Amino acid sequence: MSRKWTFHPHDESAIRRLCGQLRISPLLAQVLIARGFGDATAAREFLDAKISDLHDPSQLPGIDKAAELIVTAMKDKRRITIYGDYDVDGVTGTSILWHCLQLCNANVDYYIPCRMEEGYGLNKAALQQLHEEDPRRLVVSVDCGIASVAEAELARSIGLDLIITDHHHIGATLPDALVLVHPRLPGTEYPFGELCGAGVAFKLAWAICQRLGDGKKASPRMREFLKQSVGLAAVGTVADVVPLIGENRVIVRYGLQSLREQSSLGMKSLMKIAGMMEKPEIRADDIGFGLGPRINAAGRLGQARLAVELLTTEDSERAGKLAEYLDQLNDNRKTVERRIFKQAREMVAENPDWEQHKTLVLANHDWHPGVIGIVASRMCEAFGKPTIMIALRDDGTGSGSGRSWAGFDLYSGLASCRDHVLTFGGHKAAAGLRLKATAVNDVRTTLAAWAAENFHPRVEDTELRIDAEVLLAEVTLSAVQELERLGPFGQANSQPRFVANRVELAEPPKTMGEGDRHLAIKVRQQGTVMRAIAFSRAEWADELKALQSPFSISFAPVINSFRGFNKVELQLIDWKPAAAAKVPAM
After folding, report:
1. What confidence score (pLDDT) does residue 586 get?
2. Residues in a beta bridge with 574
3. Average pLDDT rounded to a whole number, residues 87-96
């Protein structure tokens, strides 16, 4: 079903004013105004964001005490164990801290739980084992722990020193650790609360480097490390789909440069196998579709430690073999994902009574717990509903992964189901849970009832916001290159979206890609012909073939670089018959 399109009002005088003040094109000025940057000073600050715009680490709640404890432990020759999550965010954050402490000659190692056997976050058995191996050990969590109240209580009772660094949703009770490092800690006012786990780890590494330097500045050697680690922080930031605004946008902007210039052996091997080394420049999409899935595949299939090893090894041969193995795991993951997605769609079709629910809760014994989160995202898009996918186990329990849609508060929705689940955690957009298999239907009905009462999607959450109407002839290479100044693009800072009206097919539509999942078309408008790609939209091919009249398209222009030649292509977002494409202003 086509989405509702809305334009920002076209203000010719405001566009001319911003063009003159910033010496930019009308197209870029219109996009800036549509995104709330009508003031020249604010627009200039956004376009020219600098690495110095990052807030000093000391402002991050808990970080000063955490850095002091870690430096003291280093000097006392205590073992420091980084306990990271198994996703890209946790793996990159763990690698950042490990590199930092290893360069400082600390006695450092890492622990990554197995997704299938141990589940998300801190677990009591692992903490007990770590303490028994070395009672003097200091454990530092990365990207997990803020909801681990019982686990922190165990650590304190057995005398295991625990520092928690995290960015996830904070519950009613905080864990009783030595110190908590979190950008949204109650009672504090950090200027930017949207850092991911790797971003928090980067800030902690920075604070440690300051203390080992002159107190304010790191040594030249550690400054070089920080320049390299911002690349890892960028990978975690993009992969965790946090808003690419504020500090996150700065981290990714400079991290993309660092990835090409200062990457570790392992990262270079992974970039090579993902086909990124030949590209003239690396974009956030290259992380989202190239690096992120390969790193994530290791954690999803129970081998996240290998991903950390890849990012920390100094053995080039080992790095190459690990990169190849992660690439293989990612291919396996895609095969499993396609099968589960097909089964999930069939399950919805077989249960028409779910149509009235605003949410979907699906469960199956044959589903892989490491892949269901990706499929949940695809189900959200396919059915326009927040979705929870549950992999049932032989022991009578199940582990689930959920994704939000249209602003639904998934964490609060799961909180309404707390009587039917064993554990749950996460945030508004994504969450995980464990439950007994017998409770699946209770969770389904309880979540649907809560959504019926509390979930009222706003128009702005479901509509497609358009930055401007354009002629295809205006979408030139130089215009799109100038629009790149708005990037890097991602969550909350999408690529500029335009509409071209009354276009026609220049040739019949084609399907392409693995399984013919994607659509490729050529569109013509007043003599200008351009290629457009719609990912996972092969079903549009027959619909467009049957169309006998001009139509309108909404799209994001991108630069396709091939063998040193750059050309503009369109990422097709939506289309409508021309008569249906009259777009109201926002």
Report:
1. 52
2. 554
3. 96
Instruction: Locate 577 and state its tokens.
Output: 């018959």
CA-wise closest residue to 109 among 87, 88, 129: 129
Distance (Å) of CA 561 to CA 298, 477, 493, 568, 575: 29, 11, 22, 9, 25
Cα 501 from Cα 455, distance rounded (Å): 34
Angle formed at CA 276 by CA 484 and CA 101, multiple of 5 degrees: 95
CB neighbourhood size of 473 (10 A): 12
Angle at 457 between CA 452 and CA 461, to 5 degrees: 155
Q: What tokens were used for 447? A: 């979540």
Q: CA–CA separation, 123 vs 206, rounded Å?
A: 28
- Residue 561 has what pLDDT? 80
Residue 406, sorted as left (phi over 0), alpha (psi -120 to 50) or beta, turns out to be: left
pLDDT tier at 581 (50, 70, 90 boundaries)? low
Residue 165's nearest CA partner among 176, 154, 179 is 179
Tell me: pLDDT of 45 over 90.
yes
Radius of gyration of the CA atoms of the chain, in A: 25
Report the alpha-carbon distance of residue 110 to residue 143 in Å, rounded. Answer: 13
Whether pTM exceeds 0.70: yes
Q: Is the alpha carbon torsion for 42, 51, 308, 98 positive or negative?
A: negative
End-to-end CA distance of the chain: give it in Å, rounded: 21
Which tokens hold the place of 455?
């979930």
* Angle of CA points 58, 55, 203, to nearest 5°: 60
Which DSSP category does 290 fall into?
Answer: I
| Percent of the chain scoring above 90 in pLDDT | 79
| Dist CA 46 CA 43 (whole Å) | 5
- Predicted pLDDT at 579: 67
Q: Do residues 573 and 581 touch, judged by C-beta distance below 8 A?
A: no
CA distance 414 to 419: 10
Give the helix/strand (H/E) hosting 73. helix 63-75
Give how far the C-alpha of residue 186 lies from the chain's centroid of Cα atoms, to the nearest Å.
Answer: 24
All structural domains of the chain, each given as residue ranges with its CATH number in brackets, are 5-9+467-580 (2.40.50.460), 54-262 (3.90.1640.30), 351-461 (3.10.310.30)
Are 491 and 31 contacting, i.e. CB atoms less than 8 angstroms apart? no
CA gap 146, 127 in Å, rounded: 15
